Amino acid sequence: MLASAAEHFVHWLHLSRIAAQDMDDRHVERFARHDCRCFLCRKHGTLTDSGVIRRRRGGASFLQYLRDCGLVPPRSALEEDPRLADFQAWLTHRCGVTRQTTVRYLAEVARWLSSLDKDPRTYDAITIRNIVLNQPANRSHRSVQLTAIVLRSYLRHLVAGDACRPELVHAVPYARRPRYAGLPRFLSPATIEQIIASCDTCTPAGLRDRAIILLLARLGLRAGDICQLGLADIDWPTARLRVDGKGRRATQQPLPQDAGDALLAYIEQVRPTVREDCVFLRLQAPFRPLKPSAIACLVARARTRAGVEDGPSGSHVFRHSLATSMVRAGSSLEAVGAILRHQSPETTAIYAKVDVTMLARVAQPWPGDASC
């Protein structure tokens, strides 16, 4: 599909009299929405929304390939806001955040950065507060909370470079949410095993999915941890995994027998022989590393095959389910925090609410004859 879209893009560039050296992202958008009169007759017909998406993806991928090869100049400073580039460098080199977090933060900053003056010294408290308070009505509470977090981080970046007043950081409103208000959403151990058993080990996709789900269920890894896992991170003699986690805090995790067997079967029988160090790759060319969204999709397919309709969804539910099972089996919160790699004990304290037996021992009797 990408090759076909790239061929179509080349024909459109030729008819539009656009030289390769002049290509940029604006031409990709024009190509995605043009009324096709190209030489490729198979491209004629009514343009649908999915067709625009396919054209845009193919044109952007081909343009990026030409840039990587040095055949097309990179993006100019006019196309990329230098403020975003500086913030990205600060997040990566000074804060040590992961690539996924950097992408999410940059997307949030790009949403409201145009409303700020290019000179940070002109910022005032009213302008900063309005970015958080003047949100569209359709944005959720978590989205507003993300805006406050990213804005506060962006202001700290400016303060570190002595570009704005330090007190403006405190002008960002706090979008608080109740802590420990709800129970962790989890699946029962029987349901987890049912999802694992739904993976068909006779197919390449089944072998890969089984290895990923076992790592999620046995070690409580995040989807980002799975995507970042490299071949060099596996220590086969000692049966351990090196997991970077959030903030690039590397830890050593034990590799259970069934998860190790599934991981070895995937590497030996399914994984493409490429120079890419990431363990889990796409099954079809181009053999790129999986993204967290792909992990969520394969988990959803496994739930459907297993016939699991109720309960929480997503890949993070395995992490909650592992912690819940450990607490109910008598493990201490310190042990749970060590497995989940929590930096603060307060993060692990939420799982104390799922130990019903322990709570029954410490619960005080209701005053009076009957409870309401």
How would you explain this protein's 3D organization?
By secondary structure, this protein is mainly α. It has three domains: 2-68, no CATH class; 82-171, DNA polymerase, domain 1; 189-354, hpI Integrase, Chain A (Orthogonal Bundle). It is built from 16 helices and three strands. The chain has helices at 2-15, 25-33, 49-68, 82-95, 99-112, 125-133, 141-160, 189-197, 204-219, 223-228, 257-269, 292-306, 317-328, 333-340, 345-348, 356-362, and strands spanning 234-235, 240-243, 251-254. It has a three-stranded antiparallel sheet with strand order 1-2-3, with no helix packed on it. A hairpin with a 4-residue loop joins strand 1 and strand 2. Helix 4 (82-95) runs antiparallel to helix 5. The longest helix has 20 residues, at 49-68.
Task: Give a brief outline of the structure.
The chain has 372 residues and is mostly helical. Helix content is 51%, strand content 3%.
